[in-house]
Write a structure and sequence with these properties.
The structure is a homodimer of 371-residue chains. Chain A is mostly beta strands. In chain A, 6% of the residues lie in helices and 36% in strands. Chain A is globular. Chains A and B meet through strand 1 of A and strand 1 of B.
Chain lengths: 371, 371
């Protein structure tokens, strides 16, 4: 499907590069106004790296499956690629996507809307590998470790250099949609996206889909590594006493791709507002748009069917106001579980999970004004 | 002139909104790959604000000219607009433009390439107002003060809330191209750009062109306000002992607008590299492009004549390599004074004056790869 929505000719014709949010390591954002097809071209897919990109030799490197297993495995890239492959479409969103909308500003990469993308991933099912290795009965988590290494920044932090590592529960790991992927959109992974192999954990924030994957460790204890506790964690105060927990499933969220912030629109004209909605633990079933900063809401239409863990693009055919001025647009999704996006950011998530409707301020020009 | 350069259809057809670098106060960047005409449309012009946008009543507000003058003036917006007007084209660049390229990262708004623009400004000559007021003989600087107020962030900082203020030398102020402007590109200033009145100091970094201008104070002493010393200052060590000085004229600089960082290009095809070059205290007279990360340089062509204080767009007609892979493009201007942009950033400027050639990394696709 070739989308031409949002009244901007040529906008989706070609991948047009990324926005730098941090130069080194590479943290690059999709210009989200370039949203087009259901599948995000790999060239437009955001890049979120904690450390410099490791250069892995696909011949020499091994994927090690170890820990509380009956048979340790050390698999070459060629062996992995020779196994039966699965393909799935999954939306990955950085847990900090939308951070630049936080007031007051929060430290960290100042992502706007483009630290999210929807790609087709091909690889071997993690569950199949774990079955070959044979998990001990008391394994509760699988720790995924990448070849990217460095010194974390935020306190509390361990001393010295560590590898990027995240865990997922045994239950999640044993679902066959969790992949050890080697392809993205039908092409081998690029170095920025985890070449030669990465994890894909559909429905989880991107931090779980560990790039440059080298080790999978079966653990009989919950993993409390840096990116599970200090970073990518939140305070759960549902029991009264706040306890630290790792982020996991993406919250229900929707975003406006077009118009872009501060775009100037012509008055009294048809304009198709265009965006996407997604969730990790439910499906987006309704999309509501506000044209007046949240005073009132109108319903938009989805362009894609429900496909668990993939986003749904949506549109709303607007007639722009005749009155010139500044207008604040919002989008808010409803989930299959009847929950809606919250009105505001939950501070228990720190500078993560920015899942409230994000204001897109646009201008409607005066009729006489050149456009 | 309508430019279609960089092989991207539609790229310059319409202003397409801004990139958020900081949400509140508004710090919004032009997507620099949208560079098109010589004049930057107002809708695409970057917004750099230190504090929330003041709402000024154009009927009630006054521009006060005071300090060491023979006749204090208090002028209404209507009086200013009724005076003989001048129009000039001037490039404004934020002194922190390019900061996201700094390694390691520097605090502050993470501008990429788009905190620069070239507009036509209309207003009254500051020199004319100063002649009416009559400067005392011993006046050395004019302090320009805006209505925007707040608490500065960086140390050393004064206690409490202060107004944004910058000074320029008497000599610069008396040149008739320094404007008290009320129009940008033939339209009244928008609130974000300083409505109802702002200073325009052609050739200086944007920090001198004080928005929401309310006060001009003739001073017999050099001004040592926060934005003259703590912020927007640098260490001048030319005499051996470093001394703190305010930033002033923009350094010679050039930027690549297209391709954008991480854009994917087709192999062995014509591609017009497109950009702009400018300077505050000289004119850009040559533009050199490197297609191999600085190993070798080829000369590009200017598209605009020399027009002091306005940028010159340039192009280079490239045949992309046949060999797929990652390529680093650079641009480097030479000035009328025969000086060239430096190879690296001068740390005496802190996180300002990022005037070395900034690397634009692009990919050349394999022939078989869909585009």
């Amino acid at each position: 499907m070739d989308m031409e929505t949002g009244n901007r000719s040529g906008a989706v014709a070609d991948p047009v590069g990324l926005i730098i949010r941090q130069k080194d390591p590479n943290n690059l954002e999709m210009p989200f106004d370039q949203l087009g097809d259901f599948i995000t071209p790999s060239e437009l897919f955001y890049i979120r790296s904690h450390f410099p990109t490791p250069k892995l030799d696909p011949v020499a490197c091994r994927l090690s499956i170890r820990g509380a297993v009956h048979r340790e495995l050390r698999l070459s890239y060629a062996e992995i690629r020779a196994m039966p492959a699965r393909t799935c479409v999954a939306t990955l969103e950085c847990a900090g996507n939308g951070r630049v909308f936080m007031v007051p500003p929060a430290p960290g990469a100042q992502w706007e809307l483009g630290a999210v993308g929807n790609a087709e991933w091909t690889g071997v099912s993690l569950a199949m590998l774990l079955e070959r290795a044979g998990l001990a009965d008391d394994v509760c988590e699988l720790v995924l470790e990448g070849a990217d290494r460095g010194v974390p920044k935020e306190e509390p932090k361990p001393p010295g250099t560590i590898s990027y590592a995240r865990s997922i529960s045994r239950a999640r790991a044993m679902q066959d949609d969790v992949l050890i992927a080697w392809q993205m959109n039908g092409q081998d992974l690029t170095p920025d996206h985890g070449y030669p192999m990465r994890a894909i954990v559909p429905g989880h924030y991107g931090m779980a889909s560990v790039k440059w994957l080298t080790d999978i460790v079966a653990s009989t204890q919950p993993f409390h590594g840096y990116w599970q506790t200090s970073d990518y964690g939140y305070w759960d105060d549902s029991s009264g006493v706040p306890v630290r927990r790792p982020l996991a499933e993406m919250k229900l969220k929707s975003q406006i791709a077009r118009p872009r912030v501060y775009e100037t629109l012509q008055p009294g004209r048809p304009y198709t507002i265009f965006g996407a909605a997604w969730a990790g633990d439910t499906d987006a079933t309704e999309i509501w748009i506000s044209l007046d900063g949240g005073e009132s809401w109108v319903q938009g239409d989805f362009l894609d069917p429900i496909n668990r863990h993939a986003w749904r693009r949506w549109k709303y055919d607007w007639i722009t106001p005749a009155k010139p001025g500044r207008y604040t647009l919002l989008a808010r999704a409803t989930g299959a579980d009847q929950r809606v996006q919250p009105d505001r950011h939950d501070p228990n998530f720190g500078s993560y999970v920015i899942d409230h409707p994000l204001p897109i301020e646009v201008f409607v020009a005066a009729l006489s004004q050149p456009g």
